[in-house]
Amino acid sequence: MMSSEKTNLFKLVKKQTVFKLKAFYSFFTVLLFIQMIAMFFSYFGTMTYGSTVEYVSIEISFFSADAVIVFSLLWAFITSILLTTKAYRYSDFTFVTNRLTSNFSNILFLLFASLVAGVTAFLSRYLIRVIQFYTTDVFIVQPFVEPASEIIIGISATVLYVLLFCAIGYFSGMLVQMHRLFLVLLPVLYLGVLIISDNLSNGSVNPVFGFFGLESSFFMFVVKVLLIVVILFGSATGLTNRLEVR
Amino acid sequence: MTVIQCEHLTKRYGKFHALNDVSLTIEGKKITGLIGRNGAGKTTLLKCIAGLYRKTSGELKVFGENPFNSLYVSENCIYVSDEMSFPATLSLEQLLDMASVFYKNWDAQLAKRLFDYFSLNPNQSHHRLSKGMKSTFNMIVGLASRCELTLFDEPTTGMDEAVRQDFYRAVLKDYLQNPRTIIISSHHLNEIEHLLEDVLVLKEGKPLLHIPMSELKEYAIGIQGDSLLVAEWCQNREVIFTKVIGSDKRYAVVKNHVTKSDIHRAKMEGLQVMPVSPSDLCVYLTNKRQGGIDDVFRKDELV
To answer: What is the pLDDT of residues B80-90, one digit of tens each?
Structure first.
């Protein structure tokens, strides 16, 4: 044989990931744009309570980065679906690849994307406070400096949520790539699960959201999210290992 | 050395057999032409070889491995077609850089020279190129990657005459400098005739012929003259194609099992004997019926 050494799988995955970070940088431009829109919404769309007692009027405004986080989750979901579409999948096959390395490098790319989106989304809460501080005459109650442990937990949780949405998007996208029927089936399935679980919850928190959101131990939360993420990415990789390039 | 080996290779889409029981061997360091009509299975065969398609049944070995999901095959084989997909965000120059990262034999100098010769714009995006320019760029990637197995699937789509001629010349020059296994599928056999060592003719998912180009040139002869005489001459011979010329003349292509004395006799009877160009021969061979398109327009004789 002309070149006796076998291709190193990990070296190739590394090459592909670098390639994807270069080629798909526009996703991050979109993220920046989306987060700016979300901050715009949170700036104007704050919840405000007011009350007036004699000559004193009190107005309490709630600012949060929730909108930024929600938009980032949406971005993660759509980005990972886009990665599974033909235009993105096939460019791997123009160069050197097999289905396994292609999936691995996609997952690594999404890990990196979750890190970027999660960290920026979480930090945007400080940016919102700073902007509020300089542009309005509100008195910021919450301190600018929070304990490091809280910041670390906050950032990790946001990153994990973004990663979870990446995994859901990637898995869904790959199912649709396998058969067009899933394009109809999946929304029905997802909505169905949400509606049924909502009915079963008798007015309390929907168990699907509660599974992550109500977890009091941070460690258990990490384990739960990572478990689901591994299952979703794993199934997507396993199922598409026989997918053809048309 | 054997590069590609198929045994009873079958590829089905639903009930349609795109490749039907294909058995063939392609030896290394040769340029093979893959010829066939639309839908004969050329692209399917090439995509199976490149590991893009999964075979339905049979055996397919490329460099001794099943190409589907083989990193070794992917690294040593490039499939060039107008469907090649490149990320829209990268410029042509960046794409060439990317290709050099993935293909270990990448010839950056050749890529650069071809790129300049065909005056492509390094800052342009692949998606904005015209059809012919796309094909030109893909061809550059195909040649510069210098893969041990290079598959060109109708590489000249959209190229103008001058670029096509340049392309054929480039393939030949580069092949002579770096001999490797090249398969070119094309509709223009007359244009690539001089490049090819072997010809593989596909018809309805099956190999019809797989012979050296030199043999194909002598595979058949054409006879033309008086209808009755031609018909008589064709008896007991393998007729590949026949058509009526004018009112009482006929042209027939027969398999070349003809001796010199036969030809001499034919000439004495006033028949014209002529060689058949490989390109025409392939058209005749891959026709569904002997008469060709003329039959469609001749209602009276069919009734």
So the answer is: 999 899 998 99
